Amino acid sequence: MATFSYSAYRKNGSPASGTMEAENQREVADRLRSDGLYPREIVLQGMRPAGGLSALFKRGITLSELSLMTRRLATLLGSAVPLFEAISTLHEQEESPPLKAVLGRVRGRLAEGADLARALAAEPAVFGESYVSMVAAGEASGALELVLESLAEFLEDQQAVKTKVSSALVYPALMVIVGTGVMMFLLAFVIPRIVTIFAENNAALPFITIALIAVSTALRRFWWLLLGLVILAVWTFRKLDRQEPFRLKRDQLLLRLPLFGHLFQQLILARFARVLGLLLNSGVPVIRALEITGAVTANREYQRILKQVREELAEGGTLSGSLQANPLFPPLLVHMIAVGEKGGELEKMLGKAGHSFEREFETAVTRSTALLEPLLVLGMGLSVGIVVVAVLLPIVEMNQLVK
Predict the structure, then answer these.
(1) Both 267 and 329 in a single domain?
(2) H/E stretch holding 364
């Protein structure tokens, strides 16, 4: 038994915190929910992440480091190296200080007689529930090295997807930042200087120039009000985000967004299929696998649906039949699951479906960013063009009057 510290929210939104002894993080969460609390953070005592400024400079364990460690452990175990010796070797060779510290604690628990799954479960900030469950199933079946190889491949694929998405969003994000900075500079510093020239000449200004001057004046005089409104909006959102009904509504809205909703669905479905397939292939029972898959699915609407699916499976239903009733699971995925159930190859079909959705997601992200880039350039050009026109029109009219 390990001691966990938790912070949670009651049904009325008030905070609650304390400590609890349990086998793992999942047990703590289940017990909190049975007591009517909504878990916010559950960490092993002595491992609470630093807050404040120290958290900004504390480097965590990256997905690539975790996947590389998993791959090395699978290789060592596949070479008939004993588990304790393999963990000790990884600890000695690890260059990342956070991961080296984690491996040291894992080695200490193994020396005390714990199995690998229990030793990893005591590090919930690094090893998620799906990771620990697959390791436990691998130990029980005697195929731990094969399970670790599958885990390493899955983590590497997740890192590849994350890298591609990040690379695709770098240019659009840079364009938005630069464009916003240029407009703020023009409105806050350039326009006020030009206004004084127009005022000295008592020039009659066109509507577009008057509107631009009004925006510039409001930005300079009431910037504190705009900043206050932004802070208030962020505070209100964070306050509401503590309430489970609001989180459910937020996640439902994200799935209905015109362009990004479809991308979110593809990413969620890819993760659902890959994680569920890996868990089933590792020997985890289907209902327990669905429970873990739901926990690692970030969207609460999908979590709600998967909870209903588990209840139907417990009553004797089939996975494909339960998913078919919900439009958030496309017919292709349901059909592949049905084929896998009939042929006894559900894990294989889920893996294929996960790879398919990942490729579709990557293609959609590439296509969307390719369309977004010229739109951002066009938007920047129009914004700067409006400023230029608003400034040049009065100057042109003043030159005509002089002539």
Answers:
(1) yes
(2) helix 346-402
